[in-house]
Structure formats: structure tokens, C-alpha cells
Amino acid sequence: MEAKIYICNTIGEIKEISPNDYNWDYSPSQFCIVEKYESLYEKALVRFKDNSIYALPGKNKAIRVYKGIDREPLDYTPDDMDRYSKAETLQYYNGLDNRKLDLIFYRMAGSCRELPDGLAFIGYDVGYLFGKGYGDGFSAICDCMFLCRWHGCDEEGTEFSKEFHQLNKNGLFDTEEQAVNYLYHYLNQDWAETGDFCVFEIYELVSE
């Protein structure tokens, strides 16, 4: 599939465009420093009931991990990290108190941008465009089925049952097609976030 940006300014009205036709500056691929999901989960636990739906936190249920971009990237990722080499990124990351942090790499699905070596693909995320100070790392997967920090999800917890069971052990989709189908389903809900979305390939570093 070719790289696409999905623009939704009105619920249910989605326009697909090429990244070449997009006017705002963002980063289609780069390293990103995020908080470990377990840390975010622990802080969010007090907001949820024990019988929470999907993978929302609950005291009497096992944690299900989400390893996508929506883990407070603005708090830890420099605006110009798209210009960092892998070596520069590791030097910066290792200079942080990174016990509660993860280093990931994302690339817009369909992009031909070269990947740094030493990465392993872990799944597809769906969210706002990001990078160069643009976007906040919002993910429609995380907000709907994991932490619900913005609009959340359907109260019954049934609307996305099919998509929820498609998520892999990293809380991400295995195929781009699944991710795009989910995005369209999400953007047709009357409570969904609107904005400029894309599908992300998410990678993590392979232990050396």
C-alpha cells in the first residue's frame, strides 16, 4: 500500500491524500522516546473500575501491554530528533534516566524511507501525524482500548470487539489493512477524535 494521510475534520468524512500533497511539516519516520506502558498503566489504574472493558486498567485483571507511540512522546522526544542518527539518538537516550522509558522507531506505513539497522518490527499503530513539534502522539488504539485519556471508547465495550481481538501481544495490528480498517471504523463514531491521521509501522531495538 502507498503512504497515505487520512484527514478527518468532520466525523465520518475522511479524505485520503498523498504525503506529497500535505502542507504541514511533520516527520514520516524517526526515533521516539516514550514512557514504559507499565508506568502509565499504574498511574491510570485509579481512574478505572475493576470490571473495565477492552484492555483498560482494572485491579482484578491482567495487564495487557500497548507498545505504540501514544506514551507521552512529547515529554521525552526532542522536536528535532528526526535529524538524529542512530548513534546520536542512543547517546541522548542513554543520558536520560531511562529506567521508565522505551526507545522506539516509527515510520509512516508505505514510506520508502530507509530504516536504521538493528530494528525489529512489532506492529502497526494508528494516530495523529507526529514529529518536528507537530502532533502529540495520539493513538486511536491506545485511547480507545487501553488508557482512554481523551475521548475514550464506546461504553458497552463491544463496538471494537473484532479489532480488539486482532491486536497482537504489543497492542498493535499485524497488518496495515487491519489498521486502516480500524481507523475508518473509529473515525465514523460520533465521539471520535478528528484530525490528520496516518498508519505507523512501529519498531523496537534488537538487543545487541
How do the helices and strands line up, and which of them pair or pack?
Layout: E1 5-10, E2 13-17, E3 29-35, H1 37-44, H2 73-76, H3 86-94, E4 101-108, E5 119-128, H4 140-145, H5 161-166, H6 176-187, E6 195-205
Antiparallel strand pairs: 1-2, 1-6, 3-4, 4-6, 5-6
Descriptive account of the structure:
- Strands 1, 2, 3, 4, 5 and 6 form a 6-stranded antiparallel beta sheet that branches.
- It contains 6 helices and 6 strands.
- It starts with a strand and ends with a strand.
- It has one domain (5-205).
- The mean pLDDT is 92.
- Strand 1 and strand 2 (13-17) form a beta hairpin.
- The protein is α+β, with helices and mostly antiparallel strands and 208 residues long.
Give the low-pLDDT segments: none
- What integer is the average pLDDT? 92
* Helical proportion, percent range: 10-25%
Number of helical elements: 6
Please tell me how large the radius of gyration is: 16 Å
Shape: globular
Overall domain count: 1
Please supply descriptive tags for the structure shown above.
single chain; 208 residues
